Amino acid sequence: EVMNVALALDRSLRSIDADGHMKVEHSVISRACVSPYKGEEIISGAINGATLNLDPNRIYRLLRSPAELARAADSFTGKPLLLRHTPISADQPAKESWAGTVGTVTFEDGALIARPLVIWDGAAIKLIESEQQRELSCGYRYRCLMEPGNYQGEAFAGQMLDLDGQHVAFVEEARVGGALVADQQIPEEIIKAMKNRTAAAVAKT
């Protein structure tokens, strides 16, 4: 039996305050998954990248495991939300790139969730509302372990370990699917109904 469910997506997770700043109740900023990286990205991005003897032009698939993301969650709390990826520090704050802040970050169901995101910059708000640039990408330090394996049916050449959050940036297309500024939320009772239907279908197979 097919259950027809009307998805009433009428409660926006976004709000605008009296000063024009946008608040997003919660957003996915990263997920546990296998992603492709050019060798040159790993060489320059990993703490130990220069010691790995990688081909700069080759594509390597790296795993961000659930365990590593869970350990890294709190390191993203309170970090800057940037208009583009750029290294920042107290000495080099790159103020021209700041768009807002990341709230408390937790690890849930394979994803890093920020509650809330606050966007101060009017240009960034327009990019989000126009759908031009609403995907999110994390910037972090990490150590790379080049040992192959398999995660949920996907082969990987190495793993990202000891992740340490540095910032979160708006991008046109995130490397991690589903990491974006949330807009609307499906009511919880409908989510439960859909999960129950899926579970029942699996049980029959």
Strand content: 35-45%
Helix/strand structural class:
alpha+beta
Largest sheet: 10 strands, mixed
Euclidean distance between termini CA atoms: 14 Å
DSSP helix count?
Answer: 4
Q: Which descriptor suits the 3D outline?
A: globular
Tell me the helix content: 10-25%
Order of helices and strands: EEEEHEHEEEHEEEEH
Tell me the number of strands. 12
Mean pLDDT value: 82
Query: Residue ranges: pLDDT <50 for 5 or more in a row?
Result: 1-11, 184-195, 197-205
Can you give keywords for this protein?
38% strand; 205 residues; two-stranded antiparallel ribbon; globular; ten-stranded mixed beta sheet; disordered N terminus; alpha+beta
Topology readout:
Elements: E1 14-16, E2 22-24, E3 27-31, E4 33-38, H1 39-45, E5 59-64, H2 66-72, E6 80-82, E7 98-108, E8 111-119, H3 122-129, E9 135-145, E10 149-151, E11 154-156, E12 158-171, H4 188-204
Parallel strand pairs: 5-12, 6-12
Antiparallel strand pairs: 1-2, 2-8, 3-8, 4-5, 6-7, 7-8, 9-12, 10-11
